Amino acid sequence: MARSLKARILTEEQSEQIIEEATSNRINSKREIKLHLELEASRETINRELLRKGYKAYKTPSKPNLTDFNKDERLACAYEYQDWTVDDWKCRVFSDESVFRLVSSNGRMYVRRREDEAYRPDTIQFSSDRTKSVMVWAISKDGVGPLVRVNGSMDGEECLNLFKYRLRKYYPGLYDGSMIFQDDNASCHTSRVVNT
User: Fold this and answer.
1) 139 forms bridges with which residues in the sheet?
2) Strand order in 92-101's β-sheet?
3) What SS3 state is found at 57?
4) In angstroms, rounded to a whole number, what is the distance separating the alpha carbons of residues 65 and 57?
5) C-alpha triplet 29, 30, 32: angle, nearest 5°
6) How many CA atoms lie within 13 A of 73 on its CB side?
7) How many whole angstroms separate alpha carbon 85 and alpha carbon 42?
8) 112 half-sphere exposure, CB direction, 13 A CA radius
9) pLDDT tens digits for range 143-173
10) 156: number of Cβ within 10 Å
11) Are 39 and 14 in contact (CB under 8 A)?
12) Among 7, 88, 184, 193, which is least packed, fewest CB within 10 Å?
């Protein structure tokens, strides 16, 4: 005997409402969508419908909250260097300070989105506060360079010590003029003690 097809639980209108609710507030849970729309369907049914339309729950990427000034500066930099070749960039040494959280890592949220919506502004968790952490200074050229633990905060004195004892060892070209250190305009890089 042939099995009968299960009747569709959600109407097309309800399906559209679910998608609209999920995309108007990306952090809405299945429970919140069910309650707000006053649906009789189960959370599992709502989740299946979201997945059917391509909306899966992803961990939000964490990004710094850029100001309009930051955006303008980045765009100006991109225009200034748009004609540089790979060889032009090979003579640059970059650095960045990275913070690794030790406690209560990041309060990571989940958002409902399609696979191609990964970096839409409404699917990103903008970072602001920090928990107890360890900071390291990552120097890179042609891949990842050595990680150097920074004790406390990165100030001009700490930065100068790293330049003297780490950069000289790993990037001697900085001292014979064949390479250039490209700072990110952090206050420790532009401090008087570093630039005198």
Assistant:
1) 95
2) 144-150, 133-140, 92-101, 180-182
3) strand
4) 22
5) 65
6) 7
7) 56
8) 26
9) 666 777 776 677 888 888 877 777 777 788 8
10) 17
11) yes
12) 7
Distance CA 31, CA 88 (A): 53
The closest of 25, 183, 38 to 97, measured between CA atoms, is 183
Give the Cα separation of 14 and 23 in Å (integer).
Answer: 14
Q: Which two tokens stand for residue 113?
A: 């989105």
Query: Which pTM value belongs to this model?
Result: 0.46
Q: What is the mean pLDDT of the chain?
A: 78
The band of 1, judged by pLDDT with boundaries at 50, 70 and 90, is very low
> CB neighbours of 66 closer than 8 A, spacing ≥ 6?
74
Alpha-carbon separation of residue 55 from 34, 86, 121 (angstroms): 16, 38, 16
Q: What is the pLDDT of residues 15-44, one digit of tens each?
A: 999 999 999 888 888 899 999 999 989 999
Output the furthest CA–CA distance in the chain (Å, rounded).
Answer: 89
Q: What is the 3-state secondary structure (H, E, C) of 97-149?
A: EEEEECCCCCCCCEEEECHHHCCCHHHCEEECCCCCEEEEEEEECCCEEEEEE
Beta bridge partners of 93: 181
